[in-house]
Structure formats: structure tokens, C-alpha cells
Structures
1.
Amino acid sequence: MLGQKGRNGPLEVASPFEATVTIEEESATKQEAQRTDRPGLAMFTDGFRMEHGATGYTVAWKKGTTWNGHKTHMGWGQEIYDTECAVIASALRVAATRDHALGTVTIFMDAQAAIWRMTSDDPDPGQKYAIMARKHIAALRAKEPGVCVEIRWCPSHQGVEGNEIADEWSKQAADEPDEHGVDRLDLKDPNGITRRRRFPLPRSLVNFKRDFSERKYTEVRD
């Protein structure tokens, strides 16, 4: 993490995006995703938004013959794009919090727009997740300087086991908030201690734009 001195103390600045993005032709990508001899930690990710607006995402990885993962509910007021950006940051957090050397971290995601969003911290939708991704990469590299981090595009619904698992679990995460983790706001008190608010995430900018467009369309149609 880089730092600068601001008027009211240290000003946090996101570190560079020190990861490789790989988007190949579909057949080559599918072959890579189906490899069983991939070194290090390989994770499959997906986000989902139900018709009634509930959202969630999943990070899944295989240990031996068993699939493990994190299912996270994001509540309402988010869009599929938000879940896809959030899940990449979440996968990087999983890697950064491992207590042993990984060597290689590979994250598979079927949404190219979310993958490319991680490479820029410009103030657009998804920015907070791009910044979070950089923080997790920096934390991972602080523990393991030589680690290789790669985010790869993976085609959806092509019979790739990990991708199918992530797809199914993300639907569960969106549909069953009482049985899975829930993303909520974290705030810091005057002493700098993080306190968790028991309130859902605020509406995302993408969700607000969607709602505004739908309202304008209804007005014009009527």
C-alpha cells in the first residue's frame, strides 16, 4: 500500500494492480479451466441477481475431491455487475488470508467487464472493489513476494466443473440470505476501530442508474 500525507493524516492510495489478466479464445480457456494439475490455489467465481432483485456471489475451490467455498449474500439494491466485481475482490481476500505459501493464485471468472474493471481504480461503478482487490494483492505479496496472481476469463455453461459449482452456489447465496454470509457496511469509530453496522449495503450506482432508466422508460411509454 502506498501512502501520502493529507490534511487530516495519512491518505490511502491504492497500490498498482499487480496481477495478470488473461482472456483467450474460448476453447483454450476452457481447456485451462479444466486442468487438474494446476499448481497453487485455483478459484472459480460467480455472481447472481434474481428476478426479484436479491443478489449474491460465490468463491469456490477444490481441495482433494471436495469443493469448498464462500457464499455471500449482498441483499437488494445491487446489480449483477456489482456481484461480479465483488467476488473477484473476495477471491483475492481468500488468497491473502491463507496461512501458507501458495506459489500461484488463479481466479476464474466468466464476466470480462468485471475482470477489466479490476485493472483500473478510476471513479466509476465497481471502484471500491477494484481498490479492495489491490489491497488484497498487496497483502498477499507482503507475505509471499514471489506469488503469481492471475485472473482468467472462463466461458460460462461449457461443462467446466468449477464454473458450474460457482454458478449454482451463487444462486443459493442470492436466494438464502439467512443461511449464508451477508455483506454489510463496516464503519470506523473516532478511535479508528471498525464497527459492523447491522444494515445492508447501500444501493450501488449501477442499481440506481438501472432504476432511473426504467422509470424514464415507463414515463415515456405512458
2.
Amino acid sequence: MVRMLASAAIMVAVVLLSLGAAASEYGHPAVVRIVGPSGSGCTGWFYTAPNAVRLLITAGHCYGMKLRGSSRLVWLYQIEEDGIDVAVAMDVSDDGPDRTLSLSTKFPDFLDPVYFHGYPGGMEVLATGIWIGKYPKFFDTYVAVFTEDAVIPGASGGPILNAHDEVLGMVWGIQQEPTAGLVRVFFVPAHVIKRVLDELSREKKR
């Protein structure tokens, strides 16, 4: 039954995404490219903690990378286990972004549109996808469907957003769909990111 629903969802996604937007250049003040020593890249996004500290959040496997051309990050936390793939850095610069993102407190409905901002292939893009829901094979992982040109290597750490520009989750992996031109995008949901941030806050108070 689950497999039938997933197949039906993918077919619907093919139709909806063919009518909507694929990847396009887009500037977002809270989303940035971060790079590794070998030139490999990920995506990160800014979040303001309750204590007004500005944080950069990305995927756990992007831990230790730098903002392009900058050493303004102090890495605080990293985890990669059971589908929880999160890294957190503190932005110690004085020239922060114009804005930061907030975490959503609820999920969209099945097949609602969702949006990705990131740097797949090093180019900043906005892409429209379709919300699917919890993915049963990975603990605390959710999935959406996007076009394959929108979410490729370099997208890790990028936010999945709702129509209100709130973070629903953060990309940590992709899987090619049998249907040509689509990928499943796996992401850590917002409530897990919040749990990580809360744990980090408690640890710093000890």
C-alpha cells in the first residue's frame, strides 16, 4: 500500500512539476554557499537563536567547511547518525546577513508545494517540489520530490521551505527516481533541528 501511494505521488509530482518551476537563479539573503578545502561545496542557512546569537546551520557531513572566502564561522556541533545529519556554527562576524530563517512548527499536507534554496553545482537556485512525508526506511527523515537538475551535489544543508519562507527541513541526501527527471530529496525535519539546537543550548549553559 505504501509503495502504491508513493508511486502515485511520483506520477502526480511529474505533472505538477512539469507545470511549475524547475531550477533558476535566485538570491536569498539567509542562504549561503560554504566550501571545503578541496573546493567541494554545501549549502548553509542563517538562524537566530533565542539568545540572539546568529548561527549557520548545515548538514553534518559539511562540518568544518567555510563560508566562501571567509573564516567567520566557529563550529559548535556536529552529528551524523540515524538520518540526523546536522552541523551548527556560530557566525562571529559583524556584517551578518540582512535576515535569518525561522523553523516551521507544522508540516504541509501531502503533495503541497515546497521550495528549495541552495547551491547545487555551485549555482544558487530556487526550486519547487512536492511534499511527500515521513520516509519509513530512515529514522526521523522526511522526503520530497524535486526535478533532478534542481537538487544535486552541493545541495546538502540547503533548507526546504514552505510558502511562508519557514524551514520545514534541511537536505542531507538524494535518490534518483525511476521516473526520469525526478529525485527524492531526504531531509532532517524542522522539529529535529530544533531538538539539536535545544540540546546545544543546554550543553552551553552547563
